[in-house]
Automatic annotation (TrEMBL):
<dbReference type="GO" id="GO:0034028">
    <property type="term" value="F:5-(carboxyamino)imidazole ribonucleotide synthase activity"/>
</dbReference>
<dbReference type="Pfam" id="PF17769">
    <property type="entry name" value="PurK_C"/>
</dbReference>
<dbReference type="GO" id="GO:0046872">
    <property type="term" value="F:metal ion binding"/>
</dbReference>
<comment type="function">
    <text>Catalyzes the ATP-dependent conversion of 5-aminoimidazole ribonucleotide (AIR) and HCO(3)(-) to N5-carboxyaminoimidazole ribonucleotide (N5-CAIR).</text>
</comment>
<feature type="binding site">
    <location>
        <position position="190"/>
    </location>
    <ligand>
        <name>ATP</name>
    </ligand>
</feature>
<comment type="pathway">
    <text>Purine metabolism; IMP biosynthesis via de novo pathway; 5-amino-1-(5-phospho-D-ribosyl)imidazole-4-carboxylate from 5-amino-1-(5-phospho-D-ribosyl)imidazole (N5-CAIR route): step 1/2.</text>
</comment>
<dbReference type="InterPro" id="IPR013815">
    <property type="entry name" value="ATP_grasp_subdomain_1"/>
</dbReference>
<keyword id="KW-0658">Purine biosynthesis</keyword>
<dbReference type="GO" id="GO:0006189">
    <property type="term" value="P:'de novo' IMP biosynthetic process"/>
</dbReference>
<comment type="function">
    <text>Catalyzes the ATP-dependent conversion of 5-aminoimidazole ribonucleotide (AIR) and HCO(3)- to N5-carboxyaminoimidazole ribonucleotide (N5-CAIR).</text>
</comment>
<dbReference type="InterPro" id="IPR040686">
    <property type="entry name" value="PurK_C"/>
</dbReference>
<keyword id="KW-0436">Ligase</keyword>
<dbReference type="GO" id="GO:0004638">
    <property type="term" value="F:phosphoribosylaminoimidazole carboxylase activity"/>
</dbReference>
<keyword id="KW-0460">Magnesium</keyword>
<feature type="binding site">
    <location>
        <begin position="266"/>
        <end position="267"/>
    </location>
    <ligand>
        <name>ATP</name>
    </ligand>
</feature>
<feature type="binding site">
    <location>
        <position position="148"/>
    </location>
    <ligand>
        <name>ATP</name>
    </ligand>
</feature>
<feature type="binding site">
    <location>
        <position position="108"/>
    </location>
    <ligand>
        <name>ATP</name>
    </ligand>
</feature>
């Protein structure tokens, strides 16, 4: 393999924070990026060679991107797998992960059925197309349960808890479309594994503990506060998931650790994921570098962790949409080892992910203490 200038170009459908961090990882590899996004001057545009302005699922936009790239990938699931397949056929530009994988993952019911058929452990689930079907399903699964929109949900959107029979009608009306319901998982903690599939090789990053509040990911720490046996089991399940997915790239695999120490699959993202942002400082190869290595067919990098590492999201704390101006960054920049990642979004609103802070620890650092320390970094940050 030779390096040349200009190097290969990767086209990315989506120009948000994931595209931005992919761009930061691409430059040292000699890779150029072109991104597409409906928002002019999207967060990834400062670190990409160019941006095509267009909807995520607009076929003409995807085609223009493919015609300007040697490889095509995506950082958001809202693109159209059929359009990706047609564009791949017409332009000859490889698309990774495979659009068929995206099609499977886009529909949570299809995803769960496919994984269950492959023997991957998943919570009990049912398809429900009406409030009556939901009520019948819950007669079997029991209360409480989680009702999920089959398509389009993320960051807790499209998920509605159903606590009792009195909640059924309201919950189903809130979904507004095809749905599925899952049994309530009595979990000890939530875990995630960033798994990667290259050209004939697979690997996983160290298991991460993820802490959510109101369905929004707030903090991550690796190693997780669980046993080595549970970590090994989580890695095994992640590798089982990879067997079901086609195409090269990094996949965010979200898991439940039950109170009995079992591992159940929650959901999959066919791209780098928030739960793996800590790898930028915490691992020898970040999830973003790894995704680019995989998509372009290069050898995968080592996934070894440098040191115990925690990370916390910077979330919007204002009720009205306004220009994004973050105060208090000196608290992070003045903290030894802390790393600030600002996503460059022009507007902020409540719970919007605006950035994150990562805090690598000493080799003997305690995960619980690291979580406290990284939270102390982000607590003083405010928007005005």
């Amino acid at each position: 393999m030779q390096l040349r200038s200009p190097g290969p170009t990767v086209g990315i459908v989506g120009g948000g924070q994931l595209g931005r961090m992919l761009g930061e990882a691409a430059a040292p590899l000699g890779i150029d990026l072109v991104v597409s996004d409906p928002t002019p001057q999207a967060p990834a545009s400062p670190v990409a060679r160019d941006q095509v302005v267009g909807a995520f699922d607009d076929e003409a936009t995807i085609r223009e991107l493919a015609e300007r790239a040697d490889y095509l990938t995506f950082e958001i699931e809202l693109t159209d797998p059929a359009a990706l397949e047609r564009v791949r056929e017409e332009t000859g530009t490889p698309v990774h992960p495979d659009p068929a994988t995206l099609r499977t993952i886009q529909d949570k019911l299809v995803q769960k059925r496919r994984l269950s058929e492959a023997g991957v452990p998943v919570p009990a689930f049912r398809a429900v197309d009406s409030a009556t079907e939901l009520r019948e399903a819950l007669d079997d699964l029991g209360y409480p349960a989680m009702l999920k929109a089959r398509k389009g949900g993320y960051d807790g959107r499209g998920n509605v808890p159903v606590e009792s029979p009195e909640d059924v009608e309201t919950a189903f009306a809130a979904i507004e479309g095809p749905a599925m319901v899952e049994e309530f998982v009595d979990f000890e903690r939530e875990l995630a594994v960033m798994a990667c599939q290259g050209d004939g090789e697979v690997d996983t990053f160290p298991v991460t503990e993820t802490i959510h509040e109101a369905e929004i990911l707030r903090q991550m720490v690796s190693p997780p506060r669980t046993t080595e046996t549970v970590r090994e089991h989580a890695t095994e399940v992640a590798l089982e998931v990879l067997d079901v997915l086609d195409g090269r790239g990094v996949f965010g695999i979200e898991l439940f650790e039950t109170v009995d120490g079992e591992i159940l699959l929650n959901e999959i993202a066919p791209r780098p994921h928030n739960s793996g942002h800590w790898t930028i400082e915490g691992c020898h190869t970040s999830q973003f570098e790894q995704h680019l290595r995989a998509v372009t067919g290069r050898p995968l990098g080592t996934t070894a962790r440098r040191c115990p590492t925690a990370s916390a999201n910077i979330l919007g704390d204002v009720d009205d949409r306004r220009s994004a101006r973050l105060r208090g960054v000196e608290n992070v920049l003045g903290r030894e080892r802390a790393a600030l990642h600002w996503y460059g979004k022009q507007e902020v609103y409540r719970l919007r992910k605006m950035g994150h802070v990562t805090l690598p620890g000493e080799d003997t650092a305690n995960s619980a203490a690291l979580l406290d320390d990284v939270e102390a970094c982000v607590t003083p940050l405010t928007f005005d």
